[in-house]
From TrEMBL:
<keyword id="KW-0288">FMN</keyword>
<dbReference type="InterPro" id="IPR000262">
    <property type="entry name" value="FMN-dep_DH"/>
</dbReference>
<keyword id="KW-0560">Oxidoreductase</keyword>
<dbReference type="GO" id="GO:0009060">
    <property type="term" value="P:aerobic respiration"/>
</dbReference>
<keyword id="KW-0285">Flavoprotein</keyword>
<dbReference type="GO" id="GO:0005886">
    <property type="term" value="C:plasma membrane"/>
</dbReference>
<protein>
    <recommendedName>
        <fullName>FMN hydroxy acid dehydrogenase domain-containing protein</fullName>
    </recommendedName>
</protein>
<dbReference type="InterPro" id="IPR037396">
    <property type="entry name" value="FMN_HAD"/>
</dbReference>
<dbReference type="GO" id="GO:0004459">
    <property type="term" value="F:L-lactate dehydrogenase (NAD+) activity"/>
</dbReference>
<feature type="domain" description="FMN hydroxy acid dehydrogenase">
    <location>
        <begin position="1"/>
        <end position="152"/>
    </location>
</feature>
<dbReference type="InterPro" id="IPR013785">
    <property type="entry name" value="Aldolase_TIM"/>
</dbReference>
<dbReference type="Pfam" id="PF01070">
    <property type="entry name" value="FMN_dh"/>
</dbReference>
Amino acid sequence: MQSLSWRDVARIRQRWRGPFLLKGLLNLEDLHRALDSGVDGVILGSHGGRQADWAISALDLLPQARAIVGDRFALMMSGGIRRGTDMLKALALGADAVLAGRAPLYGLCAAGAAGATRALELLLEEALDQMGQLGAIDRADLTPRLLVSRQQGFRPPTTAG
């Protein structure tokens, strides 16, 4: 199977004047190349699931990716979105937008277009509810300070029993 190269990205960008996003980046070097290629944004992710269980997740890559691209182009995340709280984590870590494919796909399989719509509504409802729990009034309030880092040595409380 032949794969695309950065030369192909440049050729497409030269011919296509509309919005151009690259999907499936999980490498910081590729992110630098994307900046230089003239694309309008990237979607961090692994094309439908972490094909290698040792690969970095898009969520873990987000803070470094945001530091690299700044506000020069759109930074989105795809993959691992199963709950509204997953969307909030991605937004807090620097994503401009989040793509959620699995939940609406399951909804579509279960109940057609209405099921896909309902799955998206449930994600949004949970995200908005959790924003209220966090004291976040709008998108700007979603920052890394709302997240507890595993590197900070957080240990969930245990219950005596």
